[in-house]
Each structure stands twice: as structure tokens, then as C-alpha cells.
Amino acid sequence: MKVQTNFQEAVSIKDAMQRERDRDRLEKEHLQRQKEALVNEEAKLQSRITVLEKSCERCPVGWELLHSCYFFSSTETGQKLSWHRSREECKKTGADLAVIDSQEKQEFISRILNGKRTSPGYWFTAGYWIGLRDVKTEGVWKWLNGTELTEGFWMEGEPNDDISKEDCAATFRKENPLMTWNDAPCDHTLKWICERKLQP
Ligand SMILES: [Ca+2]
Ligand SMILES: [Ca+2]
């Protein structure tokens, strides 16, 4: 009888140990599945980050976006430079003076300029250099990208090549957003607008 009891005890201990092993195995499988799910989730989030980073490749802080990034030199410092020095400032940031070769861009730039404070002094001192000149052939206006001007947004009576010295173009804050350009001597000092391509 004693032997029988001992045998049954041994069997039930063995069963208990078997059940415990089964529980451990199930638990292990469960953890394995959780781990796989987390690895999957991580991969999904990682690819989401890549997508977000791509779509966030906008403009640097302080630049305005419209197909390219545009930078308006500071109204705070009031710094003004010649056309060439302005261009150099743009180039320091991987940009160049702005090419305003569509009505959409012209309206965009005018809208931003109209949102800025008016500077004191004569109107012609408050312009912004753009990437347009008629240096090679008088009266033939060319953008910095080499294309010839087709649609100009000149003010009334401009460009007038005053005293035969005005070969660089600037845009001004004017009521009519499509009549804001003036030709001025390239060594005049004005503010400037830079344009930089979006990163590919
Ligand atoms: Ca000229
Ligand atoms: Ca002029």
C-alpha cells in the first residue's frame, strides 16, 4: 500500500512538473510572438520616420516656401548692399538672387513684401535686389539662370535706364502686386531676396 501511494505521489509530481514545463513553453512562445510583433512594429515606425523626414524637407527656418525656398534680407538690421554683394550673401547660403519668372512667384513675393514694415525714406531706397540684369545688352533683361525675361512686372515708366546707369532690377513694396520692379544702378545699396532649390 505504501509503495502504491509513493508511486501515485511520484506520478502526480511528474504530472505537475510536466504541466509547469508546458506553461513555460507556452509562455516562451507567447514572448517570442510578442518580440516578433515589436520588431515588426519598429520596422514600420522606422519607415514612417523616413517618409516624414522626406515630406518635411522644406525650407530652413526663416525662409519662405513656394516650389523653392526664399529668403528676404532682414528688415531688423536694415543692412543694404550692392547687387553684387547681395548676390554673394545669397551664395554663402547655397542660394542665389531670386528668379521671379512667373506671375505666381511675383504675387507670392509681393504678398510677403506687403506684410513687411515700410521703411522710412524715399521709396527707391526700400527695394530688394532680384536676379535680373541687362548688363550685357542694354534693354535685354536676363535672369541669373540665363533665360531672357519674357514677362516683366515693372512699375509704370520702368525700366528707364536712368542716366544710362540702371542695369540691375529690384522689386518694391507696391499696392499693385504686378507692378513692383524698377531698374537701378547695380552699385546702389538695397535689401535682397535669395532663392534656394528644395533638397531633392
Ligand atoms: Ca539698363
Ligand atoms: Ca529705373
Automatic annotation (TrEMBL):
Coiled-coil residue spans: 14-55
Domain C-type lectin: 65-195
Signal sequence, renumbered to the chain: none
A GO term for molecular function: carbohydrate binding
InterPro entries in the cross-refs: C-type_lectin-like, C-type_lectin-like/link_sf, C-type_lectin/snaclec_domain, C-type_lectin_CS, CD209-like_CTLD, CTDL_fold
Pfam families (UniProt xref): Lectin_C (PF00059)
UniProt keyword list: Coiled coil, Disulfide bond, Lectin
Name used for this protein in its record: C-type lectin domain-containing protein
Gene source species: Synaphobranchus kaupii
